[in-house]
Amino acid sequence: MTESVLDYMTRLGRSAREASRVLARASTAQKNRALQAAARALDAARDELVAANEQDLAQGRANGLDAAMLDRLALTPKVIDSMIEGLRQVAALPDPIGAIRDMRYMPSGIQVGKMRVPLGVVGIIYESRPNVTIDAASLCLKSGNATILRGGSEAIHSNRAIARCIAQGLLEAELPAASVQVVETTDRAAVGALIAMPEYVDVIVPRGGKGLIERISRDARVPVIKHLDGICHVYIDVAADPQKAIRIADNAKTQRFAPCNTMETLLVHQAIAAEVLPPLAAIYRDKGVELRGCAGTRALLGADVLEATEQDWATEYNAPILSIRLVDSLDAAIEHVNRYGSQHTDAIVTENFTDARRFLTEVDSSSVMVNASTRFADGFEYGLGAEIGISTDKLHARGPVGLEGLTSEKYVVLGDGHIRT
Are 234 and 248 in contact (CB under 8 A)? Predict the structure, then answer.
């Protein structure tokens, strides 16, 4: 009799729970050995990875995937290099597990503190990017968590090939094979089962489009670490250095169009707009960016700037489209960001310390920047080695989620025969 999807996922869940108990007590050296061995396995399997990826790309082209999706799906030599480097970087990071902090004596004589511990079993649901398989596996493994990885059907062959390399690393380190499990079925019922197994799964991390994340947030019976939108802003203040402003606003939009930390709305103080917007507009036009602006922006830049609608301010384009708005004060800029933003990443360009501090304090986002491109909102750039995703939630983890975000803390109490009176 053929195993049902629910039975299959239950089997994965049960195996992951058992593996998580072994991982929780695994030494740092053992976990690092698995990561380094997986890196060597990836390096040795380059031809196999490319061949598997080509199957996915060919199927994607046949299914009409757009250029952006195919780009995210491709395992180029550069992507494989970055996966190998990511494994080695995570191996080099400090192990958070077992660290004890804030030990202090209470009036009763006991000592109380906190110990960092794994979450247990982490379910990752993601689309297109097969490199996420390595990012997720490496961070979960180093933080002592078992993980169940459910990638998109469009990357199934690539993910299976990567999983074989991870399995080799686990084998060499004598860790359970079920420490990292890639879901083999492309049946969508697997997602529904994974997000409804609190007895086996401790947290779900969805990485993908808004529709996927909304569905998981709505239906999950397991806690979810997520972000829905990346409506990121750069505000060019009246006290901005024009050259810095132009460089930052260019990079924040055009370095890559698809990522969630790409700028979608540019806010400019009207007193500096005539100095920075025309050269910026020329750069954007040269790079094929469609501009949508408020009345002041259109008056300054010309009729080829489309009229921005209310919807534009609340839209994550993930495309070469940018909305531009002139504001008359820092207050207006902060109000706009907090009203239309998605609490992801927002930046101010200014030489005024007071304005910078106000922006940092009053903008309610998971990453707030001064004189830097929003494209830096990334686990690698923040020194996390890699990231499991970016969280715009306020509970547990916020911003790029690395090793520490995949852990929790428990109280530890030390006594010497103490009893409560």
Answer: yes
